[in-house]
Please model this.
Amino acid sequence: MSNKKGINHLTLEASEEAFEYLQALLKSGELSELLGVSVLDVREIPITETKALNQIKQPENVNLRQWFAGMVEADWLAIEQLLDPQQVELAFGFRNAISIVRAQKIDLGMQLARESVALVVILPPEADEEVDIVVQVHQLGQTHLPQGVQLLVSDKSGNQLEARSREADNFIQLEFSAKHGESFSVTVILKEVRVTQEFII
Model:
């Protein structure tokens, strides 16, 4: 995204059908209404002129080892700040109350502007050489996730875990363990939008 003279330019990757749908929304005036901003134009750009259109990578690695010392990045919030009480009870009612739990809001792209989710990370209360980790994805503002949301966990060796939401799933999650100093990535995918966050433990 760039900003020149108060005009924002947002680049997206979309299928031909999605592009035509955006153009139709632009012509009808609905696109500006849906996004809450004035949209002047929607145009096609050759893929060779773009860089990782559908890849949204969070700006820096999250050091989970620091969470055990109480040093948590500002954009990782207490779950009560993002999820409603029913979601908290469904997801965490059975867990140890002193587990370390933080959540981050993820916006899944302009064409899915009404689809925001929370990426939740759950750690045990104390750090060991090998740490059990749980990652979850919850819908924000609604009880159920959209069908087809993917949650991927990948390590540097190419090992990968995957979960995918079905109809009426409240949330999806993956459980795994990582050793001290090990890094891994967590990716959330919905349709053509992919958001990746890197972690180290």
Summary: Residues 1-6, 47-53 have pLDDT under 50 and may be disordered.
